[in-house]
Amino acid sequence: MTSQTTPPGSAPVSAPATGARSVLVVGAGPAGLAAARAARERGASVVLLDAADATGGQYWRHLPPARPSAKERVLHHGWSTYRSLHEELERDSGCEIVLGAQVWAIERTDAADSTAPVAVHVLVGPPDGTDRRGRTFRPDALVLATGAHDRTLPFPGWDLPGVFTAGAAQAFAKGERVALGERVVISGAGPFLLPVAASVAATGAKVLGVYEASRVPALVKGWLPRPWQLVGAAKKGGELAGYVGTHLRHRIPYVTGRAVVAAHGTDRVEAVTVAEVDAAWSPIAGTERRIEVDAVCVSHGFTPRLELPIAAGCELTPERFVRVDDGQATSVPGVYAAGEITGIGGVDAALAEGEIAGHVAAGGSRRDADLAAAVGARRTFTGFATRIEAAHGIRPGWTSWLEDETIVCRCEEVPYGRLRETREATCASGLRSMKLTTRAGLGICQGRVCGRTVEELIGGGAASAGLETAAGGRLDRPTPAASVTTDRRPIASPLRIGELAGRDPDTTTHRASEKGHP
Amino acid sequence: MAARMVPAKRDPIRPAPANPIVISIDGDPVAGVEGQTIAGVVLAGGRLAWRRTSVDGRPRGLFCGIGVCFDCIVTVNGERDVRACQRRAGDGDVVSSQHDELPEAAR
User: Fold this and answer.
1) Nearest partner of A491 among A434, A446, A431, A435, judged by Cα
2) Is residue A413 within 8 angstroms of chain B, CB to CB?
3) Do A179 and B33 touch (CB under 8 A)?
4) Are A72 and B13 inside 8 Å of each other by CB?
5) Are A183 and A208 in contact (CB under 8 A)?
6) pTM above 0.95?
């Protein structure tokens, strides 16, 4: 089953009144689930979409119904929160959950009128299937909760089989019960490395080490300036303490100021080089150590999935997240955003933001009494995004890991040397011309993996101010407008020409509030 | 060593027995269980790479695991460019690896 609706026999919680406000929520992770429930509590008619065939998002990625188990909760944090959100929405006749739903475009129905509703175009069916069904929604309010994916910086050998993102290790441990290797090294930056190590260890693999590139001073600076905030965030403290316990139990070394700077092998990874790195993440000569591995899992942070907010016309912050006000409203009337697309703040921030977004999208106010707990939680956890960035944010010295042969764009197989030569030969005349000349970022992943890396390497990215390159050149260019960054994807997901051509608008257009409620 | 399934007997989640399925990749049968993705079945079957890249003919398999990178695409029952990490395996699925040569002019 890739699409499901509420069984007709189930007891309606309180079916929305005829003419109720319609809210469309995109993304069924923590933020989207919380938004859908809050919108229903406020009486709206809700449609919740997710591209996957289950709710839960990446955070609560879990085994499919065909693989039941007695104690799946031991793999998760907040599993009972997930189960109650999911079950409540599933038996609610006022909420339609559409799974296997890939949003491929959002358009303004009237470009001249900023208050006109948006149209959300969706294909429903098996992932990358040829016979998916088109649907179009024109909701009264739209909540975007599309989350984020790993950002993995390139290093020599990162394209070898056996090198994975940390998210892949997590997804396959929790969603498949597959261990990606027997001798595993985890590397990158950020608190996400800890749950990944715990998940990998729980598959029975040997985690040889977790290498966090940031050094202790940065970690202290990021995490300790306002320690009293952690009291309010006791749940988060408990989650982190759980991971530390796992590390002690499995004797996993957690080392700061070190990074995997190369992977070795011919047709698969056989070893990695781990080096000590300075505060700018430049490797320190003479500290390299070779470790035999059969899998390496790397994540240097997260990239928010911004193509839908950008397509809807939402303003971004200078840090390139969706700009929202205290009620999670974006700059576009009727469009709200919650979770990691508004800042990498973790599950508790996502749940609070989702609840606020859903409530306000359904016509409520953020000052309403029943929202007080969520507003308080949002205040407590919003600081986490800033702390994570201060402690673990990508530092410019990583470019000195690169060799001329290192693949930067995995899809189009563009090596770093070609990017560098093209930049030098053409005096780098901007992101678009660099992409067209080198083909970097133009492959089937639509620049999701290398986009921000290419921007930094050619000097257009937000993080590149004053970037020192491996070649000794200095790149100093202004931050580009959203229209020329790699986050912009007018077609939000690759789709087949046949699916586009085969759409019949007359039979596929639905208004969210017009679906058959009793 | 390669990827493998967590043995059911040693798995702390205490899994119930799952329905066995068999798919084929490039003609070789691979056993899995219902509910796994194609990437899950192939990886746990001991194969780490399946696609060959167009320019350098390099091996690729799973990378992001969450449908973002498209490195793991395969042909499933004649349907091309299907992300193996996203598509659930069905009993009897015929999977083949992809190697798309570049047209002469683009080399």
Assistant:
1) A446
2) yes
3) no
4) yes
5) yes
6) no
